[in-house]
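Below is a filled-in request sheet from our internal design queue. Each sheet records the structural input a requester submitted and the sequence that came back. We keep these sheets so that new team members can see what a complete request looks like end to end.

REQUESTER: design group, bay 2
PRIORITY: normal
MODE: inverse folding
CHAIN LENGTH: 545
BACKBONE (tokenized):
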């Protein structure tokens, strides 16, 4: 069995029978699944082992009673028929489908409204309720039929192109490839009983057909100079192209996104794209896939000398913020996203921003900034390289070691920061627990690329100085990574030249040293009796003992 996710939930049999039964809590799980995209609930399966206890038996009466009780504890929740299965270990369990609500909002019998984010349920209230109602309309958008348009009215070449792309994709199962053309279109919800859906019009229709969709994809590409004056504009608002053709055409005509930095690397020059092609593709796909197709508005691609801004209509999906976007998945247009994925146009669900973070780490660029309001979402990607020497170091490490995506993201952050507290690294990686940080840094420490200092919340990570030395890149030393005993000697030398100095005074002369590290070293020297200070607290001065 697969692990719990946004559409799958496992519950022990104890949750529905016996003294520890809590059907009200299970009803809340049904509500949160119904308010997102539905899902499957398995009863009698233990969370940790993902299998039922050996020889566990399930009676039909128990199943009927559980479903009857759940229906009475929820409102506007569709529950499918329950099926009893026997596991290979002899234990029985049962499961049932929770259908997504399309026009209404599911609630518990007590009026609670919840939504599903990844594998957890969260209550909805206030402004979020308005957003949830708007999302409901967005979920339904793809499957609404254009009653006046039959599949026979669609150009044959458009259908042939789509099914050929599907059959040639390595991401599509053989069972899908073996379907006939009509069945493939139905499988991807492009038609329903021969009638075109909105999604079908978007992919298969002519310009005239797409114009009948309320808000099809329209794009403006605008380039600005250093004074933010508009110097170029391209517009795609004639509905001639399907989403795939539109992306390819934008990438071909957006020459300003193909510029590069040129860096000195020994006897050679190294070229680094301002925006990696994969980053551009992911940002465009994200704008198309998560656009709210139930409100008007163009997708804006704005290119400035130092940054790229892509804005699409509609807020971030409910439950997703700029602070959890790296690890939270919530699909607004699930059927459109599936087509993008199966046509190899995008990464797997929830992994697009991971790829962007990986590529930005590799090229030593700032991570994208996400801004969202009720009617728009904007992603800002910087073109600048933070530090050329760090880029050369990362390039050296990538050519000599094989890193996973997580390791490369963590390595990029540590390299650009020179030295970083574990708590700050957790924050930048949008993690919630120390334990999850291990999957990012444990191997980097094992192979001695990253070293750590301190323990627990005071633990710091930095690139191993020996690695920097072996790279032979002539990287300038940085006081931010100075070892504690050397920093103490530096402070003593500074106070010998400038006695009666405050910590702020010392920091002004040693600006590259982290202020907290400097403060800690001064206090340590005081405790050891190597330096002394004046009695006043506010304007305390330090001098050698």
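RETURNED SEQUENCE:
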């Amino acid at each position: 069995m697969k692990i719990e996710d946004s559409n799958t939930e496992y519950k022990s049999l104890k949750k529905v029978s016996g003294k520890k039964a809590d059907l009200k809590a299970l009803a809340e799980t049904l509500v949160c699944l119904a308010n997102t995209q539905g899902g499957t609930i398995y009863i009698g399966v233990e969370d940790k082992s993902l299998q039922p206890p050996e020889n566990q038996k399930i009676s039909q009466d128990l199943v009927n009673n559980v479903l009857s009780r759940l229906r009475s504890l929820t409102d506007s929740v569709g529950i499918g028929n329950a099926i009893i299965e026997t596991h290979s270990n002899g234990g029985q369990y049962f499961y049932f489908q929770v259908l997504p609500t399309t026009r209404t909002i599911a609630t518990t019998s007590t009026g609670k409204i919840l939504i599903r984010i990844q594998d957890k349920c969260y209550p909805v209230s206030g402004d979020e309720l308005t957003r949830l109602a708007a999302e409901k309309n967005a979920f339904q958008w793809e499957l609404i039929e254009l009653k006046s348009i039959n599949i026979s009215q669609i150009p044959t070449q458009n259908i042939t192109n789509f099914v050929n792309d599907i059959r040639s994709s390595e991401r599509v199962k053989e069972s899908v490839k073996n379907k006939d053309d009509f069945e493939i279109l139905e499988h991807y919800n492009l038609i329903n009983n021969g009638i075109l859906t909105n999604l079908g019009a978007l992919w298969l229709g002519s310009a005239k057909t797409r114009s009948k969709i309320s808000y099809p994809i329209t794009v403006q590409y605008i380039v600005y100079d250093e004074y933010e004056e508009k110097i170029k504009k391209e517009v795609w608002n004639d509905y001639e192209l399907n989403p795939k053709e539109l992306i390819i055409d934008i990438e071909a005509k957006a020459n300003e996104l193909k510029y590069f930095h040129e860096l000195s690397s020994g006897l050679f020059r190294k070229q680094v794209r301002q925006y990696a092609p994969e980053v551009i593709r992911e940002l465009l796909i994200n704008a198309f896939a998560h656009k709210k197709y139930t409100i008007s508005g163009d997708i804006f691609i704005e290119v400035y000398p130092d940054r790229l801004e892509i804005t699409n209509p509609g807020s971030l999906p409910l439950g997703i913020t700029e602070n959890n976007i790296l690890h939270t998945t919530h699909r607004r247009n699930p059927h459109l996203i599936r087509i993008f994925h199966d046509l190899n146009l995008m990464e797997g669900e929830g992994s697009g921003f991971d790829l962007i973070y990986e590529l930005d780490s590799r090229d030593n660029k700032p991570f994208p900034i996400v801004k969202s309001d009720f009617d728009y979402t904007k992603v800002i990607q910087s073109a600048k390289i933070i530090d050329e020497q760090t880029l050369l170091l990362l390039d050296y490490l990538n050519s000599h070691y094989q890193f996973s995506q997580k390791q490369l993201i963590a390595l990029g952050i540590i390299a650009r920061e020179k030295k970083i507290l574990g708590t700050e690294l957790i924050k930048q990686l949008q993690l919630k627990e120390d334990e999850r940080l291990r999957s990012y840094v444990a191997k980097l420490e094992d192979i001695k690329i990253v070293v750590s200092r301190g323990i627990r919340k005071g633990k710091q990570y930095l690139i191993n100085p020996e690695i920097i030395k072996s790279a032979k890149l002539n990287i300038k030393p940085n006081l931010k990574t100075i070892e504690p005993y050397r920093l103490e000697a530096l402070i003593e030398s500074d106070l010998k030249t400038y006695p009666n100095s405050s910590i702020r005074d010392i920091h002004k002369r040693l600006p590259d040293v982290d202020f907290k590290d400097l403060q800690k070293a001064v206090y340590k020297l005081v405790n050891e009796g190597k330096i002394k200070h004046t009695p006043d607290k506010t304007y305390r001065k330090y001098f050698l003992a």
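SHEET NOTES:
- The chain has four domains: 8-125, 129-386, 397-480, 482-544.
- Residues 127-141 form the longest helix (15 residues).
FILED BY: M.R.
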